[in-house]
Amino acid sequence: MFRIFDLDFLHVSCTGPPCLPFLGALPFLPLKHIHLAMAGPWLRKYGPVVGIVMGSSPAIAVCGPREVLQVLRREEFVGRPDNVNIRERNFNKRLGVLFTDGPFWVEQRHFTIRHLNDFGFGKKSVEEVILEEAEVLTSELKEQKVVQVSRLFSVPTINVLWSMIAGTRYAHDDTDFKALLHHLDFLFHSGSTLRILTSVFPILKKIAPEMSGHKKVMKSFNELQGFFRNTIHEHKLMLEENNPRDFMDVFLRQMEAESSVENSTFTEDELIILCMDLFSAGAESVSNTLSFCLLYMVLYPQVQEAVQKELDTVVGRSRKPCLDDRPRLPFVEATIAEVCRINTIAPLSLPHAPLEDTELNGYTVKKGTPVIISLWSVLHDPEHWGDPEVFKPERFLDVNRKFVHDEWLVQFGVGKRACLGEVLARDMLFLIFSSLLKELTFKLPEGDHEPSTEPLPGITSAPAPFRVEVAQR
Ligand code: HEM
Q: Ligand 1 atom 7: the closest Cα is on which residue?
């Protein structure tokens, strides 16, 4: 065990994986699924709070479930780390909501939550927008016999977000839309791994901008920013005083109202980065969770049947499901909750950072030190769940078969930094999943291997590509 007590310049003082000059602990980190190492060998070997050195930068990994809940609830850990890589994405400033903190973040987060949860955009409610996307997808699936599930939910998810943010939906073959999908996809998959590499070794950006992928990553950021900037300019031309059509309109009106306020947080650059944040945090997470839902339906046909039976009894065949049905669909809720738990979409929260020097488990943690938090350890704690590796929606039902919320179901995080889109995400998961299952049954195509539940490595978990056979009910 390597102790880094004495390396005061690293601002950490706890135990963790060995640390080499220049490389830090990198050679000793697992190549994929670091959350599994955190909740297993690291927890056993180093304890619930672990020090890691990435290159020459220190970080803290919180691996023990109780410590995770404690850190997420503690006010002083509500900050985010600040570094050149993040600033490069954000016009070399601290902008948006994902990577900001302090009064700037409080103001922007409150504004965004208030207006994203505002069900009065334009003429349609959010519920209607989601149901429309679910209907388009259901009709498309009815036309097909066998479908490839990876990316199946990207279009409906992005369309819901885009409808709320910019008031429009896209046809699947729209060129702008395809470009948007391409850049989001790249940044989320290969782009995110490349960003970790260049954040640990920033020199690579200068000496090998092509090889390190830095140039390609920056190109995708620029394209996305350009796309959002163009849409904002179109909105400015159509802006009406008393008729906000979408989130962009509401933001632009606030920008106008604060045009003479010194240091107002409402600027065009902020709106662009906010859009990037909402897409980065919202699109993949919902779309991957829905893919996992289908995966578990084909692996557990008896669960699929029970979901459909409940939908038939409560919703019937003649109308669409709606949000008001939710309390009467406990098994549907329990199934979605169990998919979220077992295939934790964000095994690690976004990195937190203490706003001031503080202590954790007896260790000193300096202001600004990145704190990596394992949500996975809470969602898979054997003591709490008993059999965390078993897919069992019933664990969320009480003796009267009512849905019971479990405080350890923390897939959206906990505390002040918890997911900003939680309400919207829950609505999308519920409405899209129940709309599909009401109309269609999914099974493995004959001859296909049973797909694995092991997620592909990445910032968010995604299932490996698999196919389903679709049958109309
Ligand atoms: C199944 C879907 C989703 C899951 C599991 C999820 C999960 C999470 C988690 C774990 C965090 C980090 C919490 C932390 O740092 O402690 C987070 C943050 C965030 N999420 Fe989500 N999320 C989902 C959907 C969405 C959607 C649809 C949106 C956008 C509308 C969204 C927007 C955000 C934003 C902006 C943050 C950063 C909040 C902040 O730093 O203040 N998320 N989410």
A: 412
Tally helices (H) and strands (E) across the chain: 18, 12
| Short-list 152, 129, 137, 128, CA closest to 440 | 137
Ligand 1: which atom is nearest the Cα of residue 411? 5
Give the type of residue at 138.
T
Averaged pLDDT score across all residues of the chain: 89
Tell whether the model's pLDDT for residue 342 goes beyond 50: yes
**Ligand 1 site, CB within 6 A:** 72, 97-98, 109, 116, 277-278, 281-282, 285-286, 289, 345-346, 349-350, 375, 411-413, 417-421, 424-425
Of 7-21, 205-219, 333-347, give the lowest mean pLDDT range.
Answer: 7-21
Instruction: For residue 51, report the distance from its CA to the centre of ligand 1, in Å.
Output: 25
DSSP 323: G
Integer CA distances (angstroms), 65 to 52, 74, 407, in order: 18, 14, 12
List, in sequence order, the alpha helices (H) in 239-300.
247-257, 268-299
What band does 43 get if pLDDT is binned at 50, 70 and 90? very high
How many Å lie between the centroid of ligand 1 and the Cα of residue 399? 32
Ligand 1: distance of its center to the CA of 421 in Å?
Answer: 6
Query: Which atom from ligand 1 is nearest to the alpha carbon of 428?
Result: 27
User: Is 50 exceeded by the pLDDT of residue 459?
Assistant: yes
DSSP one-letter code for 465: P
Distance of CA 252 to the CA centre of its chain: 26
Mutate to test the pocket of ligand 1, among 419, 423, 430, 431 (most ligand atoms within 8 A of CB): 419
Q: What angle do CA 293, 299, 304 make, to 5 degrees?
A: 60
* Interface ipTM above 0.90: yes
Lowest pLDDT segment from 21-35, 372-386, 422-436, 455-469: 21-35
Cross-strand pairs, 443: 469
Name residue, tokens 């948006």: 96
The whole-number pLDDT of residue 9 equals 41
Instruction: Write down the pLDDT at residue 5.
Output: 38
